[in-house]
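G., the chain you wanted modeled:
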Amino acid sequence: MEKIIFATGNEGKLKEIRDILGSEDCEVVSMKQAGIVLDIVEDGESFEENAVIKAKAVAACTNHIVLADDSGLEVDYLNKEPGVYSARYLGEDTSYEIKNQTILDRLKGVPKEKRTARFVCAIAAVLKDGSLLTSTETIEGYIGEKPAGTNGFGYDPIFYVDTYGCSTAELSEAQKNEISHRGKALRAMKQQMKERHIL
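Predicted structure as tokens:
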């Protein structure tokens, strides 16, 4: 069975990844489960650069396939903030409740048509032969007036999609995996890996 190490400690993210990538032929494990402890400095200027930095750092510690992602929220009215700093927005240990409320406060009184936003996800894979694959996908939406839903994590409660008329934290896992930036990027990566007969 092929083992894929995904460079994340986020259980919510890992579940999404397993739902999409998992099969009888491959097992997806976290860095922690693989016994890899690293402090990776993500100093890239784009989501893809950060994903590549993470994947290469973990790949240097193992002979398994390594996948890493970097994802975040871009709010057009806020000059695409928080962007690559989404996880570190307002400080490393600031709760998403505070982050989400800060974004809502900064958009107070801004009409819906100017509240456009997107989630971006870049995925990088380092294969056993050292070659690199990448995929980047987005989901377009807007920042709602208030947080809603408990199914997601991070910025999901304030990110709304017109397709369903609700926040991404109000979607079922199946709905979210179908339309989310991470779902689309993972499927694109899965396709590339299938073409190389890895999955």
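The chain has one domain: 2-192.

Shout if anything looks off.
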